[in-house]
Write a structure and sequence with these properties.
Layout lengths: L2 E10 L4 E8 L4 E8 L5 H8 L1 H8 L5 H27 L4 E6 L9 H6 L4
Parallel strand pairs: 1-4
Antiparallel strand pairs: 1-2, 2-3
Amino acid sequence: MPAHFDLIITADSPSHTAELCLLNAAGVQLAYRQTDFHSIALSRQHGLFNLRDFLQHYATPDQEAASVADIGVCIAEEVLGTDIFRALWAAASQRTLRIELPGASAPDNHLAAALARVP
C-alpha cells in the first residue's frame, strides 16, 4: 500500500529558519524540526539553493555525482533531520511526498522562495 506524506515548510526569512512538519495521510504529525540555516555551511547552502550553479563552479565532471550525493546528505541530515528522514525512509512501499511552502509567493519571503528550488 502506498504511503502518502505532507511536509509543510514554514520559512522565516528574517531569522533564516524554517519549521518542518511531517504529516501522514490522515493529517497526523509524525515528526517536526526547526532548521536554522545559519548552522549550515555557506558552501552547502549554495549547493542546496542553486545546485546547477554550484556544480558548474565547484565540481569537476568526475566529482558531480559525489557533490550531488553530498547535497542529498545535507538535505537528509541538516535540513530534514533524523526524525523526518527516518519517517520517510521507513516506508517500504511506494510513497508520495507532497511539499507545501505557505508564504512562498510573498515578495519578502526569500527563504521560502529559495527552499522551493531545493532539489
